Request: fold
Amino acid sequence: MNHRVRVVIIEDETDLRALIERELLTVEIFQVVGAAGTLSDASSLLETEFDLALVDLALADGESFDLIRTISSNAGRKVLVLSAMDDARSVLDAFRYGASGYVLKSAPGFEIAEAALTTLDGGVVISPAIARFLLHSLPARRPGRLPFPRRSGLSDREQQVLTAVANGLTRKEIARELNLSPYTVAEYLSNIYKKYMVSNKSAAVAKAIWHNDIAG
Reply:
């Protein structure tokens, strides 16, 4: 990425907004071009030229789902949700309305900056804590009732390995549970990363939940 990335921050906590801005500006490519603390103020930002919006779900004058949909409907713009809400409805609705990532406000500043970079690179960002929460909070999945379209290409064994990862098991624990060698587990993980075009476990779990590829 060889150009400046223009960012707007839509967050009603002034101190947190300033903290996020400072953290983003430690990454050379980011340029903060606007900020707002309410939906009404945020609407005026839509005329601003920007590439990424960091959006709080619960603003002083309402929830920002429609704002997320409006921003993400522009193919050149992406949304990273930054929220205190970790319930399944909020997370899933944010993605359905077009968000590309969901990070809790309690995450360290550097993680928010990393999430912004991953979002810009086309990754789907869900913090590990939310990924595990979603895994156990979603209702039983039935044919025709999937929260997201299934399109993975993962084998049954790869799904088992990734589900174990989402449950927080280590490589050795996965090997023991599935009666595999740790080296075989590493091979499965490598294949999963290639299929999802990701480079780490958290990103793989995020995409698996996004594509409905692991079972609760």
